[in-house]
Amino acid sequence: MDAHDGFATLVALRAKGGELTALRALSHPEQVRRVQPLLQFDPLGSAPASRLDAVEVVIRDLRRLGRHVMLDASEVADLPAFGTGPTSALGQMTDRLADPVDLLDGRDPIAFIPVVRSDAADQPAVALGRLCHEPIGST
């Protein structure tokens, strides 16, 4: 399934407890066929490492169901715990998704759709654009 194909509803969710739990509860491709999830990292809440772990699980689960996740890290781009530079959390997520975690994961790297907000400065927008075209794992 193409990442942009076939959805009728874009659902923007903060990447925190209840929202991630709800996404992990999805188990059938038809549950996400017409819905495109957009996860936004929240600068408040649990430790960044645990949020990265939880978002990685959701991205992998939704990939198995045939849906890519849009991921927005704009609000955490300046928080050092999420990484450094304009790609911050998205660069870390790219590296995390480069390799399978178990036998159910395919050999291919898992993709997500990075979100660039309309008010983004040129440098972050260009860096995220490059992230989309880099070989997985080289950020």
What is the multimeric organization of the chains shown?
Answer: single chain
Query: Which class best fits the helix and strand makeup?
Result: alpha/beta
What value does the average pLDDT take? 81
Strand order of the largest sheet: 1-2-3-4
What are the segments in which pLDDT stays under 50 over at least 5 consecutive residues?
Answer: 135-139
The gyration radius over C-alpha positions equals 14 Å
Tally of contiguous helical segments:
4
Q: Major sheet, described briefly?
A: 4 strands, parallel
Please give the share of residues in helix: 25-40%
- Amino-to-carboxy terminus distance: 26 Å
Question: Could you tell me the strand content as a percent range?
Answer: 5-15%
What is the approximate shape? Answer: globular
What sequence of helices (H) and strands (E) makes up the elements?
A: EHEHEHEH
Number of strands: 4
Descriptive report:
The chain contains four helices and four strands. 33% of the residues lie in helices and 12% in strands. With 139 residues, the protein is α/β, with parallel strands linked by helices. Strand 2, helix 2 and strand 3 form a beta-alpha-beta unit.
Short description:
This protein has helices spanning about 15-25, 50-65, 90-95, 120-135; strands at about 10-15, 35-40, 70, 115.
Give the SSE map.
Layout: E1 9-14, H1 17-24, E2 35-40, H2 48-64, E3 70-72, H3 88-96, E4 113-114, H4 122-133
Parallel strand pairs: 1-2, 2-3, 3-4
Features:
globular; alpha/beta; disordered C terminus; 33% helix; 4-stranded parallel β-sheet; 139 residues; 4 strands
